[in-house]
Amino acid sequence: MEEDGAVTLYSGSATIADTKKNPFSIKVGIAQMLRGGAIADVTTVNQAKIAESAGACCIVVSDPKGPGISRMPDPTLIKEIKQGVSIPVMAKTRVGHFVEAQILEAIGVDYIDENEVLALADEDNFVNKHNFRAPFVCGCRDLGEALRRVREGAAMIRTQGDLSGTGDIVETVRNVRKVMGGIRILSNMDDDEVFTFSKKIGAPYDIVAQTKQMGRLPVVHFASGGIVTPADAALMMQLGCDGVFIGSDIFNCSDPYKKVRAIVQAVRNYNDPHILAAASSGLEEAMGGLNLNENRVEQFVNAETY
């Protein structure tokens, strides 16, 4: 297991290792296929078809929001969506619920998202992702959390921001900067300092040392939460992410195809302000509410008061 858990693959092009020696590297390589793309959160077959036609690289199936605890989506819905689209399909499972993960793998999903946005099934333990063939996606809020999930077998990291669906991107920016800032600090350290740094962030030394050597996370890194405009998506890419997740709330507008397509274009051309301006033009308001609620404004004002 120690050998399976070691990350040995990441470069501009995938280099497949011996599957018998390191099957985890295969899952990392599969996840690399999503780099430079946008993953759309969907709850219906129609939304999945819209996302595919708009250029999404993958779709993640969510349980339609309703009262009570959020769980794994209905397998029937997942099967219908898989039959209706040709792009990879991801589905969510609760943290620590390895039986939900077994079910998702059995019905043939391409990726499994162990998602902390859903209700927790296990407060202390995550799924041992090395026991599954399907690549796993896991969330994080800082570098230590990201590298712990990689050790558990996550082939993709999703830096998570806003969980309430308000369109507030400030938490996503904060967490992405924490991850990237931690990597920059690590990259400038002497090798002798890495042991203490690993202990400080609570991450395995070998994964931390590899992150230092590579100068980035050893797996694909996406951002999620509050990304509702092309400018939001381009911001995440310029901060160093490999792609973005788009929430299902984006399908509540009058022309969801146009909105998803604009974000996809922004991810692909995030360094071209002219293309970003064109992609941002003619879109209706991304969210009806304010990005900053009254409490957040008050916190900001208090922080700026000397």
Write up what this structure looks like.
There is one protein chain. With 306 residues, the chain is an alpha/beta fold. It has helices at 2-5, 23-32, 45-54, 75-84, 98-106, 143-152, 170-187, 194-201, 205-214, 230-238, 256-268, 273-280, 294-304, and strands spanning 37-42, 58-61, 89-94, 111-115, 136-140, 154-160, 220-224, 243-246. The chain has an eight-stranded parallel beta barrel with strand order 1-2-3-4-5-6-7-8, surrounded by eight helices. Helix 7 (170-187) packs across helix 9 (205-214) and helix 10 (230-238) runs parallel beside helix 11 (256-268). It starts with a helix and ends with a helix.
Radius of gyration: 19 Å
Catalogue the unreliable spans.
1-22, 286-292, 297-306
Tell me the distance between the termini. Answer: 53 Å
Mean pLDDT: 85
Give the helix proportion (percent range): 40-55%
Largest sheet, described in full?
Answer: 8 strands, parallel, barrel
The largest beta-sheet arranges its strands as 1-2-3-4-5-6-7-8
Give the percentage of residues in beta strands: 5-15%
Taken in chain order, the helices and strands follow as HHEHEHEHEEHEHHHEHEHHH
How would you describe the shape?
globular
Which structural category do the helix and sheet elements fall into? alpha/beta
List keywords for this structure.
306 residues, alpha/beta, 8-stranded parallel beta barrel, 13 helices, disordered N terminus, disordered C terminus
Please render the helix and strand layout as text.
Layout lengths: L1 H4 L17 H10 L4 E6 L2 H10 L3 E4 L13 H10 L4 E6 L3 H9 L4 E5 L20 E5 L2 H10 L1 E7 L9 H18 L6 H8 L3 H10 L5 E5 L5 H9 L4 E4 L9 H13 L4 H8 L13 H11 L2
Parallel strand pairs: 1-2, 1-8, 2-3, 3-4, 4-5, 5-6, 6-7, 7-8
